């Protein structure tokens, strides 16, 4: 859950989010080194009384350096970024499937291969919140087992939506007439919140997502 004044990302609750967090930290590390080196170099030139040659027309060595350096930096960032990107699309051997359908302005959930009833999830009104979070609580939360690879199929009944759960590193567009899928794996039990991340009309801000990740034993009790 995000908090007021928070500067960094949410605590990762999935493998995908952990990879995204690692890539983010790696990029910040590279940027800090580049900025420090350039700033130190420019400061030393200024303090040493270096003057710019206004009549310099070409400098092949300098041109090679400022062309190759960004190329090498971007190449070093490409590997971790692609690894994080493709890990979220790997749904080759899921243990279960969750189908999510966006509607104006609520979410519908189905378990195609499990004997669980499908349900719709509407935002809870203020008078029913109790001690819950405003604009994040729902009347029917969706239950998933921890430590289980889940394939999430996302679509829409009307306009474009986007099903997003930041702490799980998941954000998938819900497009009418199209099935998009993303893999989800959470090794921790708990409650994860998200929202619609695509402007879909006047009540776009009131389409929360609430997932309850429980132990496998508790999830099996629901099946029985």
Explain briefly what this protein structure is.
The chain is 31% helix and 25% strand.
Report the sheet-strand fraction.
Answer: 25-35%
**What order do the strands of the largest sheet run in, or round the barrel if closed?**
3-2-1-5-8
The low-pLDDT segments are none
What distance lies between the first and last C-alpha atoms, to the nearest angstrom?
31 Å
Largest sheet: 5 strands, mixed
The ordered string of helix (H) and strand (E) elements is HHEEEEEEEEEEH
Q: How many strand elements?
A: 10
Radius of gyration, in Å, reads 24 Å
CATH H-tier superfamily of the largest domain: Cupredoxins -  blue copper proteins
Q: Into how many domains do the coordinates divide?
A: 2
Task: Describe the 3D structure.
It is a single chain. This protein is an alpha+beta fold. The chain has 2 domains: 15-87, no CATH class; 96-223, Cupredoxins -  blue copper proteins (Immunoglobulin-like), CATH 2.60.40. Helices cover 31% and strands 25% of the residues. It is built from 3 helices and 10 strands, in the order H-H-E-E-E-E-E-E-E-E-E-E-H. The strands form 2 sheets. The protein has a 5-stranded mixed sheet with strand order 3-2-1-5-8, with no helix packed on it. A 5-stranded mixed sheet has the order 4-10-9-6-7. Helix 1 (15-47) runs antiparallel to helix 2. The longest helix is centred in the N-terminal third of the chain and has 33 residues, at 15-47. The radius of gyration is 24 Å and the shape is elongated.
